Amino acid sequence: MNQSTARKTSATTDDHQEDRPHVLTLPLEDQQADREPHSYERWLLAKLMRMAGSPPVRFQLWNDEFVGPEVGQARFTLRLTDPKALYALVTNPNLAFGDLYSAGRLQVEGDLSDLMEALYRSLHNARQQWPRWLEALWRNHNPRPTGVSEARENIHHHYDLGNEFYQLWLDQAEMQYTCAYYETPELTLEQAQLAKLEHVCRKLRLKPGMTVVEAGCGWGGLARYMARNYGVKVHSYNISKEQLTYAREEARRQQLDHLIDYVEDDYRNISGQYDAFVSIGMLEHVGKDNYQALSELIRRSLKPNGIALLHSIGRNRPMLMNAWIEKRIFPGAYPPSISEFMGICEHGGFSVMDVENLRLHYAQTLTHWMERFRNNMDKVTGMYDEHFVRAWEMYLAGSIAAFRTGSLQLFQVVFTHGENNQLPQSRKDIYRSPAAPEAY
Amino acid sequence: MNQSTARKTSATTDDHQEDRPHVLTLPLEDQQADREPHSYERWLLAKLMRMAGSPPVRFQLWNDEFVGPEVGQARFTLRLTDPKALYALVTNPNLAFGDLYSAGRLQVEGDLSDLMEALYRSLHNARQQWPRWLEALWRNHNPRPTGVSEARENIHHHYDLGNEFYQLWLDQAEMQYTCAYYETPELTLEQAQLAKLEHVCRKLRLKPGMTVVEAGCGWGGLARYMARNYGVKVHSYNISKEQLTYAREEARRQQLDHLIDYVEDDYRNISGQYDAFVSIGMLEHVGKDNYQALSELIRRSLKPNGIALLHSIGRNRPMLMNAWIEKRIFPGAYPPSISEFMGICEHGGFSVMDVENLRLHYAQTLTHWMERFRNNMDKVTGMYDEHFVRAWEMYLAGSIAAFRTGSLQLFQVVFTHGENNQLPQSRKDIYRSPAAPEAY
């Protein structure tokens, strides 16, 4: 969606700016919500549901009539407010589902994450029987380019929404907008995010005085954690202005600024050689075209005995990002499949030492975010319009479903130069004590 | 090499059988070891060494003359016993080095593993500058086919050399002919092999009453360990007769035969569904052409919430097996690169949960094997001819070097069906206590 229009403080000025993703809306007078549904409209919806594997869903049309299974078999009711919403949905369900929900023209009765999970499962099974033409119709389009200038636009679109907004629902420990590590299931979001940071530091085998370079640092939490707890010097690159402002202020406040250099620059401009190369949640934005260059960059930035860690959303198979997410939420996003991920390591002559998949940890992280987002709904609606709020809910709910159903994975990959023989004897010391603080 | 000819007990009969790998030998009268070396022969050797990156090696020719760097710079002396050995080496060094060593026509002064390591490092660096024609000349050939009938031949060639032979230098705990797990560096071979078995069981999260299928079971040690320590039922497939004979006897002796079914059959004929699918050191013999079929086999053999583990030698990049090893030692062998390995998982819609690289553990395992092999040299030479003994030494030394220099990797990969949500919360419990017994 177009965040510029959504943000209440800076509305109207660029309402018609077409170069950024925006939400499909139609003037209400065209929506013909006062007429009776046609029988072929009911047929189209029923057909759509069959192609989607008959999920436990029924529709309520604009005249309150129900289409689909009995209420006993339908765990969710989707209300379509007008005929055009129905046409948008049946002709381009992949994109329109999120857009109509955001616009309030598709309303959901039942839990949104559970609905999305049911739809994911149902679709996943149904797709295996689809004819080729249907698969082609459904196909997600290629992500937007991610060159140096486009990357700035892509990142600005999402990460510069305002630090106050993210503070409402991210953890209060280190503003981590990536998968947490629930080493035990009852951890709070704060504990699990700190555990993630600790887990990453342990995998990197940090020692005081070492140097670290970080590609994409968010609000700078990992760099501060490393400097504070491991006494290392960190250079952290980011192209989101709002995040960097926060990161720098926070480092000063914690008197860590002598150990951390937050650099406002593209990761491609990283220079120097370091004991560790780390990137948490940036690879999803890098784009396949840049994998080889990233690999070469890590090759020249890592000291001979250095350790690199990439943490990224990934896939079990190569697959384009969901169209709605790529268009409205994360422009340019492409999560690599595990073999594509390994291809990055192979290109640079690296030796992959450790891969850990934290898929269900991301589902739990997102569930915690969703909870806080909803608890702060009044504040969010004070900042943004309802359209934005619903889009964000859909994004969080859809992501929970994607991680729960295995449509998305979360890979932490540790690797070294192929010639490096200074390797840890085992992974045992990563587990020497709990990674999470006892309380937060 | 041709084991049939090598084995003293069954010599002569099939000396000229050409369908099995055999060692290049020339009748001595052709070898012209009594003439002076020509100047262009010295030039050829010097050229070969330059192309190989000038390793710290000098040659001693059949007339005792030295070629190469001063004794101070040369850590190793390679003695060539005759002119034809020189020609074989310069025209096909990749294959001839091992063959000439086995034949006693290339003799090494200095530690063989250290020499091989120095050659690997030197070659690795030099190759990056090689012109294309030289790279093409050096190229390893494609491995032999690994269909059901060829696989029998391939496996028989190596694994049916005689249990008494392997007992001389493998661990006395469970006859493990795969990488051990040195969770601490001072472990004995027996402790480290038992630790490997325990490590694998923990990764598979075995519980009493579960069922396991094993593809390629060697002498059956993992199956017995699982039955004994975890109370699971194991079906273990193998096509090496000699190994199975030992495995079955040992299971009976340990009164574990009610829990273990050792099946003499190709892994492709595995049937049924199991809580765990495990394969230690078989993937190297499967061949790229069969990766998809293997993936589909695991898909249908694994229960919905089951866990699979593949343990295999691998590569940092796709690369053919060393020609000499493929021809003389492991016919049909091809260690997958990490992305090829992941491709196996992707094909079956699996979710990769854990990858661990134990490269240096294999170097240590091989060092222990080599030590025992040398300590039992008198017994080995009682069983096989000198040619065989030298070939085996070269194979062990070359493998040590390959793992030390990162030319080979050892990957343990854990994966599940993509839809499985019954995943362990973390890997912490794998490290709950030492995997190795306190003593052996």
UniProtKB/TrEMBL annotation, chains A, B:
Transmembrane segments: none annotated. This is Cyclopropane-fatty-acyl-phospholipid synthase family protein. Residues 45-124 form the DUF7884 domain. Residues 1-33 are annotated as: Disordered. Residues 1-12 have a biased composition (Polar residues). It comes from the Bacteria. Pfam families: CMAS, DUF7884. Keywords: Lipid metabolism, Methyltransferase, S-adenosyl-L-methionine, Transferase.
